[in-house]
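Q: For a teaching handout, I want to show students what a protein-ligand complex looks like in token form. Below are the inputs, and the small molecule is ketopantoate. Please produce the holo structure.
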Amino acid sequence: MQYYDLCVIGGGSIGGIIAYYSFRGGITNIPVYYRSIESVEAIMKNGGLTIKYGDKEYLVPIIPVHYTKPIGKCRFIINTVKAYNVKDTINLMHKITSEDSLILMLQNGFGSLELVEEKIFNRYIAGGVVFIGAERINKYYIVHHGGRTIIAGSRRGFTSKLLELMNILNRGGCDFRVTSNIDLYRWIKLGVNAVINPLTAITRSKNKIVLTRYGRILAEEIIDELIIAAEKHGFKLDKERLLTTIFRGSENTSENYSSMAQDVINNMPTEIDYINGFIAKHVGEKSVNGVITRIVHLIEESYMKNNYNKS
Ligand SMILES: NC(=O)C1=CN([C@@H]2O[C@H](COP(=O)(O)OP(=O)(O)OC[C@H]3O[C@@H](n4cnc5c(N)ncnc54)[C@H](OP(=O)(O)O)[C@@H]3O)[C@@H](O)[C@H]2O)C=CC1
Ligand SMILES: CC(C)(CO)C(=O)C(=O)O
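A: Here is the structure, written as tokens, with ketopantoate included.
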């Protein structure tokens, strides 16, 4: 059985950026798993992933693999598929891990980490929040639009494996940090995504739309409800600090189309249920977050002609 140091499941925008930092951090053989044969073939033809960062392009020589044909076990597995695809990767994660492996889930919103914690035992599992803007231009070409911080932590207790992963990614230029309170950061990141993602998706705009007058008004309305939801889970968030984080996030990634805006532009399903829909479940369906969730679902319905199976 072949052993790899690090594997990525889902080599889209964020998975590609993780492969880039890992490669620069000294990991040379990186299997990256994809859902479609088209992605595997396009990346093989290109000789790897091309990452544009600033005005430079880097070729990252990954090993593209279809998710139904695993090629070996991995010490670190970084899962960067969309939240609604996580359930399809559970089997793969079982196959490519051993009891010594660490799985890091990097999806936005709530639900993905919980699902993996529920389904996978005898493995180290961690969650992380990503403050990076990345855009997938085509199957093999990804643009890094700014930000370089990832905060990760395990809800099953401290593991030094996360520090090992931190060393690799830090060497590669990523500001990867480890926390003992990952849920606090997941709530803060939920605030960032609950504002930036639907506002950019509805308007099909770059992240800087949030910095406009109505962007700021809506941000406050969304965040007021998020604070109530967080309190129900025992987290007291400060509104002004949260808004500062959100607006700074929009500035740092101002030229990025959020992952949800990219979904809408590409006629794909969105993660709205894991983000604003999750907040609405706590504060009522008639809330601002409830309305935003329904508007984004309406937009999805306008282009989803049964050509993609979300279930
Ligand atoms: N884009 C961004 O700027 C940011 C995104 N995030 C979060 O990161 C996560 C990933 O988003 P993003 O990178 O934008 O997503 P993308 O849509 O760009 O990429 C998703 C990737 O997952 C692959 N995939 C889907 N199903 C499977 C499967 N069953 N097995 C293996 N691979 C699979 C797809 O394969 P294929 O190519 O074959 O379709 C694709 O390569 C999301 O939760 C998002 O919210 C967080 C911060 C910033
Ligand atoms: C950080 C941000 C807002 C970057 O665009 C993101 O998480 C996303 O696009 O999903």
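A: Two things your students might notice: The chain is about 45% helix and 20% strand. The mean pLDDT is 96.
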